[in-house]
Design a protein that fits this description.
This protein is of the alpha+beta class and about 800 residues long. The protein contains 30 helices and 21 strands.
Length: about 800
C-alpha cells in the first residue's frame, strides 16, 4: 500500500510538466518540514493529512501546479506553522496570492463556527430555561420566553450575515483568480468526507450547519462552474448528514437496482463497443447509475406532493418511472466522431422524439459540451446515452479547473472558456449591484440561491444563442439577461416552440404576456417598443434579482422627482405629528446635513426620494429629526432648561378642525372621514365615534351605510354652516393612454398649483390605457375646476374627475 505522499507525486506526474512538478515538490517539502510532527489537537485532523487530502483532490481535477501547491501549504498557513512571506519566497508569488485569498475565507469560516457554537449553547440554555419556567408565574414565564425567542432571530441573522459575507468575498476572489474557488471546493469536499467518516467525533450542530451550507451554496456553485463530479459528491455527502434515514433508504434502492441491472449494462456496453469498433472509432464505453441525491430528487418529483412526507414518499415511490437511472457514456477522440457515433447508436436503437440534445453546437453556459440521446434500448428500455470526447469529459467532470490545465485562459481562450470566465467576472459586478440596492443579508443569500444556483432552464435567442435562467423565469428576465436596454423597452415576447402533431413536430410561434413562465428549449424573440418602460408592476413579474434590480434602478432614476415630492409630503405629515414640529418648515440646511450624516445618504433629496419610493420609513427620519432638536436644545439652553424643566421645540398651532353645526350646535369636535373625503356642497351625515368626536361622511359613503346598518342610533344630522377654511383631502381619478413620463408631467402641474400630492397610484387594465388615482391636499376648492382643465390638456390624458369612490369602467373612455 503506497503512502499519500507517493500517491500525490504519482498523480501530478501523470499530467504536469517537469517545471510544474518541481513547483509542487517545493510546496510539498515545505509542508513536510513544518507539519510532520504536528498533532491534530482541536482541529481533529493533523495539518499534514489535511494538506495531502486537499492537494490530492485538486490533482484529481488536473488543477495546475500553482493551485495544487496552494492546496498543500494552505493548512500550514492557517495553523500558523509558516508565513505567507515564506510561501512566496520558497514556492512562488502565484501560490502565495491564492493562499492569501483562501486565508481570508477561513477567517470568515471561523466566525461562522463561533456563531454556530453560540446557537448550540443557546439551544441548551433554552431547554434548561423551559424546565425552570414551570415553577414561575405566568408573567415571569412570558418575560423569559420573550427573551429566549428574541435571541434566536439574532443568532440566525448573524449566521446569515456571515454566510452572505462569505459569498460576497468568494465572488470577488473568483473574479481575481478562479483557482481560489477550486481550492475552496476541494477544501469543503475534504471536510465533508471527513465528517461522514464513521469515526468522526465533531460537534453535531457544526456538522448540520456545514452540510446545509454545502447543499445550498457550494454544491450548486460547483455545478455552475461545470464541476459535475464535485457537485454530485458534495450533494451526496450533505444528504447523508442532513437526512440520514432517507439517504440509507435511497442507497439501498440504488445498490439493489445496480445489482439487478449489472448484466444488462454489460450487454449494452459490449454491443456499443462492437458497433464503434466496426466503424473504426476508438471509443471507451461505460455504464453508470445515478447518484443518490440526484435519484432522490427524481423520486420526489415523480411522486409530487407525496415527496413532502418520508413515509408517503416510500409508499408512493415507483422506481420503474425513473427512466434515466441507468445511463451510458461513449468517449471518442474528436468532435466529428461524436456525430458519427450518434448516427450508429440510432441505427442500433430507435431514438425517442424530442430527446436528442446537441450541447456541442450549443454548449451550456458552464462550458458543458456533449451529445445526449434517449433511445429504446434492449428490451425496449428507455436509457440515456451521452457521447463526448475525452477532453469534453474532463471538462464536464472538473469544469473551470480544466481551463487552467489546458492553459485555456487569457486572450487565447476558447469561446467556451471566455463565456465561463466572463460569467465569473459578472458575479463580482452582480453582487455589487445587489449590495447597492440595499438588500439585507438574507435577501442577498436568497438572491444568490435563486438566480445563480437554483435549477436552470436554457432559452434560445432567434440567433441561436443560449441563455440560462432560473426555473420560473419570465420574458422580462430573459430580456434583461440579453441587455438592460432590451429589458427597459420590453413590450412582449414571441415564443417559438415545438408542437407534436400527426405529421410530426412543427414549430409554432405565439405571442405571450410578460408574466408567461418560460420553458427550457424555447426560442424567445423579445418585442420592444420605444414607448414601453418599466413600472412598479414589473417588480412582481420579474423572477431574477438581476432583473428586479435593473427595474428598481430605472424607477429610481426616472421617478426621482415624483418620489422626492411624495417623500416630502409624507415626511411633512409625520413631522407635524411628533412633538409639535413645524413639518418641513423645521428642516433647515443644518438639519438636512445632520440627517444625511446619520442616515448615510449623500443629499437630503436622496432621503426624500427613498421615502417616496418606500425604501425608507418617514417615521424613522422624523424621529432622527426630533433627536436633533433635542440635542440642539440641550446644548443651547441647558441652564434655562434646568430652571424650567422643559425642552423648547419648534412648534406651531395645529390646524382647526372643521367647523360644522352638529344637531344645530357649533363648536363640537368633528373630523372629516378619510374614506370618502367629503367636501362643502356634499350631502353629509355625522357618526359619533368613541373618543374621536363626530366623524363626517358623505351620505353615499359605503362605509357610512354599513355603519348605519349596525349602529344607526349613533348617526346625527350635520350641516356645513359656519364652515372655516382647513385643508381638504381630494381624491381624483385620471384616465389616460400610458406613456413614459406621464406621472412626472402630472406631478409637475400639481406642484405648479402649490398643492401637496399625498399619494399616487396606477392601474393598467390593458397595454395602452392606464387609470391613475391620486389624493391632493387643497386649501381653496375653487382651484379644482382649473386644475382639472389644465390636466386634461396634457398629452395622452383623456379625462380627469373627482374620485367618488366608485371604480368606473374604462371602456366608456376608450
Amino acid at each position: 500500500m503506497t503512502s499519500p505522499v507517493a500517491d500525490l507525486r504519482q498523480q501530478i506526474r501523470s499530467y504536469m510538466s517537469a517545471d510544474e512538478v518541481d513547483m509542487v515538490e517545493k510546496a510539498l517539502q515545505l509542508v513536510l518540514e513544518v507539519c510532520s510532527d504536528v498533532v491534530a489537537g482541536e482541529r481533529l485532523v493533523p495539518p499534514l493529512e489535511y494538506a495531502l487530502g486537499v492537494a490530492s483532490i485538486l490533482a484529481n481535477m488536473h488543477m495546475d501546479a500553482a493551485g495544487v501547491a496552494a492546496g498543500l501549504v494552505f493548512e500550514a498557513i492557517d495553523a500558523d506553522l509558516v508565513t505567507l512571506e515564506e510561501v512566496e519566497d520558497r514556492v512562488g508569488s502565484t501560490t502565495a496570492r491564492v493562499v492569501g485569498s483562501m486565508e481570508r475565507f477561513n477567517i470568515l469560516e471561523r466566525k461562522k463556527q463561533s456563531v454556530t457554537a453560540v446557537s448550540a449553547a443557546l439551544s441548551a440554555q433554552n431547554l434548561q430555561t423551559s424546565a425552570a419556567k414551570k415553577s414561575h408565574d405566568e408573567r415571569e414565564e412570558g418575560s423569559s420566553s420573550a427573551s429566549g425567542d428574541g435571541k434566536k432571530p439574532r443568532v440566525r441573522e448573524a449566521m446569515r450575515r456571515q454566510q452572505a459575507e462569505t459569498v460576497r468575498k468568494m465572488f470577488v476572489a473568483m473574479a481575481e483568480d478562479p483557482r481560489v474557488v477550486s481550492l475552496k471546493l476541494a477544501y469543503r469536499l475534504f471536510v465533508m468526507r471527513h465528517m461522514c467518516h464513521p469515526e468522526y467525533q465533531g460537534d453535531r450542530q457544526e456538522m448540520l450547519a456545514t452540510a446545509e451550507e454545502t447543499r445550498e451554496i457550494y454544491a450548486p456553485l460547483a455545478g455552475r462552474l461545470g464541476m459535475s463530479r464535485v457537485e454530485g459528491e458534495l450533494e451526496d455527502l450533505a444528504f447523508q448528514i442532513l437526512e440520514p434515514d432517507k439517504f440509507q433508504w435511497v442507497k439501498g434502492i440504488v445498490e439493489s437496482e445496480r445489482k439487478q441491472w449489472r448484466s444488462y449494462v454489460e450487454s449494452v456496453c459490449e454491443m456499443l463497443r462492437q458497433e464503434m469498433a466496426s466503424i473504426g472509432v476508438n471509443a471507451v464505453v461505460s455504464g453508470r447509475v445515478k447518484r443518490y441525491y440526484s435519484f432522490y430528487r427524481k423520486l420526489e418529483r415523480s411522486t409530487g406532493e407525496a415527496g413532502g412526507d418520508f413515509e408517503m414518499l416510500k409508499a408512493a415511490a415507483d422506481v420503474t418511472q425513473i427512466h434515466d437511472l441507468i445511463a451510458f457514456r461513449i468517449l471518442v477522440d474528436t468532435d466529428n466522431e461524436c456525430y458519427i457515433a450518434l448516427g450508429h447508436v440510432h441505427s442500433l436503437w430507435k431514438p425517442k422524439e424530442g430527446r436528442i440534445k446537441d450541447f456541442i453546437a450549443n454548449p451550456k453556459p458552464n462550458g458543458y459540451r456533449a451529445l445526449h440521446t434517449t433511445v429504446f434500448c434492449l428490451d425496449d428500455q428507455l436509457v440515456e446515452i451521452q457521447i463526448r470526447t475525452h477532453a469534453m469529459h474532463e471538462m464536464a467532470e472538473y469544469g473551470v479547473a480544466m481551463h487552467w490545465h489546458y492553459k485555456d485562459i487569457g486572450d487565447n481562450a476558447s469561446s467556451t472558456a471566455k463565456e465561463l470566465l466572463t460569467w465569473i467576472h459578472q458575479l463580482a459586478e452582480w453582487q455589487h449591484e445587489i449590495k447597492a440596492a440595499n438588500a439585507t443579508d438574507s435577501e442577498f443569500v436568497e438572491a444568490v440561491k435563486d438566480d445563480l444556483f437554483e435549477e436552470q432552464i436554457f432559452i434560445f435567442t432567434p440567433r441561436g444563442e443560449v441563455k440560462d435562467l432560473p426555473v420560473g423565469s419570465t420574458p422580462l428576465d430573459f430580456a434583461y439577461r440579453i441587455h438592460t436596454k432590451i429589458g427597459d423597452s420590453c413590450a412582449g415576447a414571441r415564443v417559438i416552440s415545438h408542437v407534436e402533431g400527426h405529421d410530426g413536430d412543427r414549430l409554432v410561434t405565439r405571442m405571450v404576456p410578460l408574466d408567461y413562465e418560460l420553458k427550457s428549449g424555447e426560442i424567445v424573440d423579445i418585442v420592444t417598443n420605444r414607448s414601453a418602460h418599466p413600472t412598479r408592476d414589473w417588480l412582481n413579474i420579474a423572477r431574477t434579482a438581476a432583473a428586479r434590480n435593473k427595474i428598481r434602478r430605472y424607477l429610481k432614476i426616472h421617478e426621482r422627482d415624483i418620489n422626492i415630492q411624495i417623500g416630502s409630503e409624507r415626511l411633512d405629515r409625520v413631522l407635524k405629528s411628533i412633538a409639535g414640529l413645524r413639518g418641513m418648515e423645521a428642516i433647515t440646511d443644518e438639519v438636512e446635513n445632520w440627517l444625511c450624516q446619520e442616515l448615510h445618504m449623500d443629499t437630503f433629496e436622496d432621503i426624500l426620494s427613498a421615502i417616496g419610493a418606500d425604501d425608507m420609513r418617514p417615521h424613522g427620519v422624523a424621529v432622527k429629526a426630533h433627536d436633533y432638536f433635542q440635542q440642539r436644545e440641550g446644548k443651547e439652553s441647558r441652564d434655562e432648561r434646568g430652571e424650567t424643566g422643559e425642552l423648547a421645540l419648534p412648534t406651531t398651532s395645529r390646524q382647526p378642525a372643521v367647523n360644522l353645526q352638529v344637531a344645530g350646535v357649533d363648536g363640537l369636535l368633528t373630523r372629516l372621514a378619510n374614506c370618502c373625503c367629503p367636501l362643502p356642497g356634499d350631502e353629509i351625515v355625522g357618526f359619533i365615534s368613541r373618543g374621536k368626536g363626530v366623524i363626517v361622511h358623505r351620505s353615499d359613503c359605503p362605509n357610512a351605510m354599513r355603519l348605519h346598518e349596525r349602529s344607526g342610533e349613533r348617526f346625527i344630522t350635520v350641516t356645513w354652516q359656519g364652515m372655516s377654511q382647513p385643508r381638504y383631502h381630494v381624491p381624483i381619478i385620471i384616465f389616460a393612454r400610458d406613456r413614459a413620463g406621464l406621472i412626472r408631467d402630472i406631478a409637475t402641474i400639481i406642484s405648479e398649483y402649490g398643492l401637496n400630492l399625498l399619494s399616487i397610484g396606477t392601474n393598467a387594465n390593458n397595454r395602452e390605457r392606464i387609470v391613475i388615482t391620486a389624493t391632493l391636499e387643497i386649501n381653496d376648492l375653487e382651484i379644482m375646476p382649473r386644475l382639472f382643465k389644465r390636466l386634461e390638456k396634457v398629452k395622452d390624458i383623456l379625462q380627469v374627475e373627482r374620485d367618488m369612490g366608485r371604480r368606473r369602467v374604462t371602456d366608456a373612455q376608450a
